[in-house]
Amino acid sequence: MEGVTHVVHAAALMSFWKKKREAMRAINVDGTRNLLWACEKHPIKKFVHISAMAVIGEPVDPLVTVVDESTPMKPPKNPIAYAETKLRAEEEVLSAAEREVPAVILIPPAIVGPGNWEESSAVFFKMMYQGPRFYTDSFLEMVAAVDVAEAARLMLASPHRSGERFFLVARRMHSREFFGKIAKSVGKPEPGLKMPTGLLKTMGFLSEAASLITGKEPLVTVDAARLMTTPLPWRFDGSRITREIPFTYQDIDRVIEDAGRRFLEERGR
User: What pTM, to 2 d.p., does this model score?
Assistant: First the structure.
């Protein structure tokens, strides 16, 4: 960190497998704390932390239908292991901000774009290409990967106060529409199977049970099934950042098309 003036902290381990809880704690919580400690030892000009929408709980007012950065929120109930570690990481950042580390927090939901097709939301492209192609009765908030990168770049030079948080939400889409667009981008038919909630949860339980024998990461976990089948009666408003800095969200449809094209190109190599 010696000689470093600006930091973007985007490193994290994301998994819905409880077996990786300790690894997520070591990377997401302890790693964040260590980096902040280094920033205090070698004072910097700006620290941008990439958090996750999983840290957001539920509105204090149950009648609220739109949530933004100013909405009073309760802590998440029974958070999944990944969300728990990201929440604690954000608490480390806010604590450092009180100690005058110039930190700003960006909070994205599902991040869409090309990358490692075996991880995170990029795995959906592989799933829609190979199958099974199904959808759940749920909505997803999403943002382009390039938007997260651009927002972080712009925030490095922004005058915002330490400890401020910004949602990065470009669009909300039903999972059937989302998976349908991904399937189309990789030249496959739209998913026609609606996965019953009970069946998906059962698959998660059985997959985790099988992993105890095989030692391999389960295809679907209990936490992933719970996340995919828990509808939220509110949506997230990510417009604040567009009002306060010169930032515009990418068109998600085009982002999906480009990612699908990249997937097919890399698969054909």
Answer: 0.91
